[in-house]
Fold this protein.
Amino acid sequence: MPTMGDTPAAKFQSHLEIKTLRPPSPPTRPFSLSKNQDREHQKTPFFKSRAGIRKSDTWIISVFVILHVVAFIATMVANDCWRNSHGDCALKALGRLSFQPLPENPLLGPSASAFDEMGALRQNFLEENHHAWRLFTCTGLHAGLIHLIINLGSVIFVGIHLEQVFGPLRTGIIYILSAFVGSLAAALFITNSPAVGSSGALFGLLGAMLSGVLRDWNVYTHKLAAISFLFFVSTINFAVGLLPYVNNFSSIGGLISGFLLGFVLLFTPEVKPLVHNKAGLYEYSTKSSIKSKLKLDRPIIRGVCLILFVFVLLGSLGAVLGGINVNQYCKWCKYIDCIPSKRWSCNDITANCETMVSNSQMTLTCMGNGNFRVFPYTNISQARMKDLCTLLC
């Protein structure tokens, strides 16, 4: 007999069980990469900027470029071809900033006396007048507009890449020290013709980049392309150095300095693969990013290269202060710096000319070979007269 508590609702009571559904697992990879294949995925092209780079990280090369441009403009203003050469200039439309005639400066630049005034290297200034400060000022000068464009164009490309990957501090140290060692090398082969050593800093960056490729050969891809690029840039700039005023020994010294400093200051980039969705739900591809290691690896190589760099720096400095001129022992070395041509002069002798003034005309006659030239003016500075006499002799 049913009780009072047994109700019809209780007879039809049921229990509902709710089960959560698991989402389908993504399909497994049909194969796994081997260790060597995984390393290949962790390589990166050499000319690739560090991930997340900020514009503030690349400022040191910009500062150097601006300083070089300002120094070149100041040199052209001091040259003042329109007044000092009485309008005998190339690109006369530029007025005071016009260039010297091409036989005098084939790189579209100032005169030899203007280089002397702005701090170029010359044998008598170092040996007789002891102008050691020219070892620093010559690194900021360019021989002409063509030299400026080629040199700074290379510095911008190579320098900003190094600055992005290794930071402005290391890049700046390599730039400055390579420029100074380059000027010391130029002083060891100095002649009595003005020489500028701005290419030493560029070749220092090229040497550092070369050492970066060699020491981390297994990290980068397209290594042969990078080395080919370095060879091309070096060849172009070295060829420019065969013209007057550009010192190729500065480039050689900067290259050696930058190569050693690259092993000392640069580090091995840590390459990590990043996975990003490409199209479909499970379609992926990989890309690589560079995270620079803060630790200094390979201490033995760094120590050896540091000792070699100090030896090169102190040895060159001691030789320069001791008045050593390698040209006295190497007669053909001068052709590495400047190749004579009918279109320009590599003359480094001390020229002596006889001056005759009559009827508002001036006649210069070289005492060495008898060449002479008549100029339709007489108001000319002694420095400019020395330039013209050197061209005649």
About this structure: The radius of gyration is 33 Å. The first strand starts at residue 44 and ends at 45.
